[in-house]
Specification:
binds zinc ion; 16 strands; single chain; 6-stranded antiparallel sheet; 538 residues; alpha/beta
C-alpha cells in the first residue's frame, strides 16, 4: 500500500507488518525530514499519524489532504508536501498536552481504560521515558494487561511531576510503540480526598485508595480493655453500624472459604480486627464516595463486569474507573481474618473494588527480593486468595512488587488471573543501569551523591541496606559500575535516593536517556520479561 491509499482509511486500519511499517517510516521520513518510529504509524480519519524525532526533539506527525475536518484540534504549524503528484498537508506538532488530548480523541487506544479483573502489571515510571520499554516486554507475553501510568502522590512530589504529565508521558510512549491493547492509569496511594481531584481531571482510570494512616497498628498487640475502648471510639455513624450489630455479624459464626480453610471469629479476633481496621474502613468509604462524586457520569467498574476473556469491548476508553484498596504500607501484617473483615465491611458499605493489597507477612523492601519464610508466605497467601474469590472475586495486589522473584511463582500458582503486580522503582534502577554504560561519569556522581543522601532519604521507606557495603565510585572501574545495581545494598541505596538524585541530576539524566533511548528500552525489556514471565508460564 502506498501513502495515498492509506489516506482512504476512515476507521483505524489494522496494525501493519514490521516490513510494511519500516518501508512507510522511510517514506514518511523523507517527506518530513524527521526519523519516524515505524510502530507508531496509524492510519485513520483519512490521515496518517506517526511519531517522529530528530535527536531528542519528538514530534507528532499528521499527514492528510488539505481539508480534513477531523484534524482541527491538533495545534501547531502545517506545510504542503508533494506525494505522488499530489499536494498533501503535513503537520509536525509538538508533543504537548493540547496535542495529546487531540491524539487520544483521534486514536482511542492511546487513552487509558479500565482493565477489570484481567491479570495486570503496574509499570511505574518516575522519569516518564520508560513506557516503550515496558510495552516491548508486555507485548511478548500473553494475558497481562499493563498499567503504564502509575505514580503515587508521594512520588510526584519527589519527582516534581503532575498527574497530567505522568499520564501524557505514558500516552506518548504508547503511541511511539504502537501499543493498541487496553492499558490503565493508576492514581497510586491516594490518602486524602484532596489527592483525588488532580488525577480525576487528568483522566486516570484506576484509583488506589490508601487508608494506611487510619490503620491502628497498636491494636495488633493491645490488651483486651484497650481494644474494647478502641472499638467503642470508632466512627459508628460513618460505618452505618453499631457494636451490637457488628458482633451479630461475626461472633461465633464460621465462614467457609470453599477451599479448605474456615474462618471463625472469636471475640478477641473480632475486637482486634475492628480496632485495627475500623477507621481505615470508614476512610475508604469516604474516599470512594468522594471519587464517585467527582467522576460524574463515569460509573465505577463493578467486580463482575469485566472478565479476562470478554473484556475488550466491555468498556471503551474514557468510560468508567476502577478502585484498589491498599493497606500494604502498614507496620503489621494483615491476617486472613482481618482481610476477610475489611473486605466484608467494605462490601456491606457498597464500595466496589477490583483489587486489594493486604500487608502480607514477611518483608517487602524496596528494590530487592522478598525477605521471609516462603512456606509461611504461601500458607497465608492461599487463604488471601480464597477470601478474594469468596468475597469478590477481586485481584490481590502486590505492592512493592519489584524484584520479588522468589514469591512470583507462588502467587501465580494460587491466584491465577486474580493478581495485580505493582512495580515502580525498578524502572528507575534500570535507567541507572543504562546510565552506567552510556555516561559513566554521571553514574559516578549519582552514586557518590546517593551515599551522602541515604541516611536521610531512607526515612519513609522499608529498607535495611548497610551503606558500608555499597562501593564508593572511586573503588570501581567503569566496567564495574553497573554491578552496584546487582548488590542488595547498592540497589536499596540507589532506589530510595531517587528524589534527591532527580532534583540534582534529573535534567542530565533524562537528556542522556533520551539521546540513547534504545539502551534504556533494551534494559527495561529484559528486566520486565524477568518480572512478568513467572505470571504467564503455566
Ligand atoms: Zn504500595
Amino acid at each position: 500500500m502506498n501513502i495515498l491509499s492509506f489516506l482512504k482509511q476512515r476507521e483505524l486500519a489494522p496494525v501493519m507488518t514490521e516490513t510494511e511499517a519500516a518501508a512507510l517510516a522511510m517514506e514518511l521520513g523523507d517527506i518530513s525530514g524527521f526519523e519516524v518510529y515505524p510502530r507508531s504509524i496509524a492510519a485513520a480519519h483519512n490521515a496518517l499519524f506517526f511519531l517522529a524525532h530528530r535527536g531528542t526533539d519528538k514530534r507528532l506527525g499528521v499527514l492528510s489532504r488539505g481539508d480534513n475536518p477531523a484534524l482541527t484540534d491538533f495545534a501547531g504549524e502545517a506545510r504542503d508536501v508533494r506525494v505522488n503528484e499530489e499536494t498533501l498537508v503535513l503537520r509536525l506538532r509538538p508533543t504537548d498536552h493540547v496535542n495529546v488530548v487531540a491524539l487520544r480523541a483521534a486514536l482511542p487506544y492511546t487513552a487509558p481504560q479500565v482493565l477489570g479483573l484481567r491479570k495486570s502489571a503496574g509499570c511505574g515510571d518516575r522519569l516518564g521515558l520508560a513506557t516503550p520499554g515496558h510495552a516491548r516486554a508486555v507485548r511478548q507475553l500473553s494475558g497481562i494487561a499493563p498499567i503504564f501510568a502509575q505514580q503515587s502522590v508521594r512520588e510526584n512530589a519527589r519527582t516534581g511531576r503532575t498527574p497530567q504529565q505522568v499520564l501524557d508521558d505514558a500516552t506518548w510512549g504508547v503511541f511511539q510503540e504502537g501499543w493498541r491493547e487496553p492499558w490503565g492509569a493508576d492514581a497510586d496511594h491516594l490518602k486524602t480526598p484532596a489527592d483525588v481531584d488532580a488525577f480525576v481531571a487528568a483522566g486516570y482510570t484506576f484509583y488506589t485508595v490508601d487508608p494506611g494512616d487510619h490503620v491502628d497498628n497498636e491494636a495488633h498487640t493491645a490488651a483486651h480493655g484497650v481494644l474494647v475502648d478502641k472499638v467503642q471510639a470508632l466512627p459508628w455513624d460513618v460505618l452505618e453500624d453499631t457494636p451490637q450489630a457488628l458482633n451479630k455479624r461475626y461472633l461465633g459464626r464460621t465462614f467457609d472459604l470453599g477451599e479448605g480453610p474456615e474462618l471463625v471469629f472469636s471475640e478477641e479476633i473480632l475486637l482486634g480486627a475492628a480496632a485495627k481496621y475500623g477507621r481505615a474502613i470508614a476512610h475508604t468509604v469516604q474516599m470512594s464516595r468522594h471519587l464517585v462524586s467527582r467522576m460524574g457520569d463515569r460509573p465505577p467498574s463493578t467486580l463482575r463486569q469485566v472478565y479476562p476473556e470478554q473484556s475488550r469491548r466491555a468498556q471503551g476508553p474514557g468510560q468508567g474507573f476502577e478502585l484498589e484498596v491498599s493497606v500494604d504500607e502498614t507496620e503489621t501484617p494483615t491476617s486472613p481474618h482481618e482481610h476477610f473483615f475489611v473486605a466484608s465491611e467494605l462490601k456491606r458499605l457498597g464500595v466496589q473494588w477490583v483489587s486489594l493489597a493486604p500487608r502480607y507477612i514477611g518483608r517487602f523492601e524496596k528494590g530487592v527480593d522478598y525477605i521471609g519464610d516462603l512456606a509461611q508466605f504461601e500458607a497465608e497467601f492461599v487463604k488471601h486468595v480464597a477470601i478474594a474469590r469468596r468475597l469478590g472475586p477481586y485481584k490481590l495486589s502486590l505492592h512493592s512488587g519489584s524484584d520479588k522473584f522468589s514469591i512470583y511463582p507462588i502467587i501465580a500458582r494460587h491466584a491465577g488471573h486474580l493478581v495485580h503486580l505493582k512495580t515502580a522503582g525498578t524502572s528507575y534502577l534500570e535507567a541507572l543501569r543504562a546510565i552506567a554504560s552510556i555516561d559513566p561519569p554521571l553514574f559516578r556522581e549519582i552514586l557518590a551523591f546517593a551515599h551522602e543522601r541515604y541516611g536521610e532519604d531512607k526515612a519513609t521507606y522499608h529498607v535495611s541496606a548497610d551503606l558500608a557495603k555499597v562501593p564508593a565510585p572511586d573503588q570501581l572501574a567503569d566496567s564495574e559500575l553497573a554491578g552496584v545495581l546487582d548488590l542488595f545494598d547498592g540497589r536499596q541505596v540507589l532506589h530510595v535516593t531517587f528524589g534527591s538524585v532527580l532534583e540534582r541530576f534529573g535534567q542530565r539524566l533524562k537528556e542522556m536517556l533520551a539521546q540513547r533511548e534504545e539502551v534504556y528500552y533494551a534494559a527495561l525489556e529484559t528486566h520486565f520479561l524477568k518480572h512478568l514471565t513467572p505470571f504467564v508460564a503455566k
